[in-house]
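Thread: Newbie trying to understand structure tokens

Hi all, I'm a second-year student working on a class project, and my supervisor (Dr. K.) asked me to get a predicted structure for one chain before our next meeting. I've only ever worked with sequences, so writing a 3D structure as a token string is new to me. If someone could post the tokens and maybe explain what I'm looking at, I'd be very grateful. Here's the chain:
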Amino acid sequence: MLKGFKNFLMQGDLIVVAVGLVVALAFSTLIKSFTDSIITPLINAIAGGGAAGKGLGWSVNGQRIDLGAFIGALVYFVIFMAVIYYLIVVPYRAYMHRRGKTVFGEPAPTKECPSCRLADLPVAATRCPHCTTDLAGIG
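---
Reply by user tm_fold:
Sure, no problem. This is what the structure looks like when written as tokens:
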């Protein structure tokens, strides 16, 4: 029973996911600090507000709609996803490619029905599932 549990814990996929989550959390903290300390004050300064966060936004019935905070969160998301992609996904893909495995590969080739223009049909499909057009001669 313990041997099976040990084998489960030592699976390559589980280790990769665990390391990825830890690295993602660390990058998340770093990038959140960057956006909170640099990007958000810049947005507030450009919009004419002060450091108190009264920059880009408006008030409606006493409630603050803070567009600057949303833009800061959007910048945070884009930076975070780019960092994860270029520092984790790209090296992992290259590593697995050297080992002869395909991960995050290109999607399978597809074709389009000439009658109803339904796309994403498998290349091997002989009949359109939407309009039942014969696709045998279409590549």
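A couple of things are worth pointing out once you decode it. Residues 12-46 form the longest helix (35 residues). Strands lie at 57-60, 63-66, 110-111, 121-122. Feel free to ask follow-ups in this thread.
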